[in-house]
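Task card 7
Instruction: Convert sequence to structure tokens.
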Amino acid sequence: MIPSHQVSFCTPTSRALKSVNKTDTMTPNPTADNIYASKDVESYSTNPTADNTYVSKDVEFYSIKAAELQVPKLQGELEQLQARMQEEALLREEARRERDFAEAELREEVARLQEVAAKGEAEKEERPSFKKLKAIEKERRALLLRAELPFWRILFFWSGTCLKEISTDALVWFTLLIYIGIRTIAHSLEFAPEHVAYLETGNIAILGGFLSFFLVLFVNQANGRFLEMYNFSKECTQRIQDVAGLARFQLPEEIGLELVRHFNAAHIAGYVGLNGVGSGTPYSKAHFFDVYNQKHQLLTHEEMKLLGRNDMDCSGLTMKELVAWCINDVADARKLGHIDGGKENNFVDYVLSFRASMDNLYNYVDQPPHFFYVHFLILLSALYLPLFAVDVGYNTGWGAETYIGLDILNGVIVFLQCIFVVGLRALGNKMIDPYGDDLEDLSVISYIETTLKICDTIMTSKQPTRTWAAKVRKEGELYYSDDECDDDDGDDD
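Output:
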């Protein structure tokens, strides 16, 4: 390859002229110049391959120059491409990390849900069987009749009394041990210690008065909750009986029976769903709802499958859905022409009143008394009873002034104070949630079974054939009937 500084692009004429100019500088002989020029022309004409060689070399030169000019541009594009590739690699790496993090979170959430589900299943298995629930209900109903017994018989009962709670309370025994310890030391000493005189100036009775006020207030509030929830439970049974009475004589038998079945199923499912709002009710779907459903044929297999999307043991959604079914049953009866708008409104009012009463149960269970208040009472009790035992123990006598009879009497007073404080607190706690498995709780099984029996009696009731005469309308007499009144929309005009 010819070096770039030695390559030039020349035509035959220009090369001849250059040759002439060069010769002219060398010799002034024009004849010789013509001879050289003619020789160059003759050389080009006789050897054209040489000129093509020059042309190809020039093209190669310019190609190299163009390639050299393209190198920086291509290098810039290459750097940009590499930068984009690095950026894409970083984005892919970040996306991979986010994906891995999301997968880890998802696995943790799945594990947590599995743990919750396993815990829920374990809790469901721990709930008592229907046989045990019936045994508790039997004792519960018998307990209600004990209040009418003579006082001497009531004193000898153990179950359903405050004695069981007091005997297992650690604060009671701790208080009694403090009193016994002080009296033991008092009998072992001949003279009273000097600090006994200072303790006599204290007035623990003031603290006892404040504690008594708050305890009585707490029990009063808990008792009010208890009675309100009892009333709501009874209102639920009353609304079901109202609907059964109307359905028996205003709806076709098939529609009426289905409406009453759905309504009773909603009643039972409502108590099972209380577990979803924090109540530790012993009623479960497997050991409570399914038993009544199988016995009374409340829901078909297809209907149970439709309700399976909601966990009856963990929420009240099943009850809500069954209430919606009841409203739909009434709406279908109106569409089919069996009832008018006024009668439909009556049915719907009773159904919605039932739902409102059941919702009130959920509201009370969801909002128990404030923990701050309960903790305040327990703290006062834990401070007051030991101080009371110390005060009574020091003031009972020391040394030669000790008497066994007085020790026993004051010990009984300390124990009575424990019964008062711990008993009132336990009484209030018992009434906070009346839907548990305690003997003092409400008789849910009795409410449900009584309602089922009443509904069955209403839906199968029959009357003897009557020969009553129809009212004869006199001329000009005003007489209105449902058939003549257009009350489909509930309007008076």
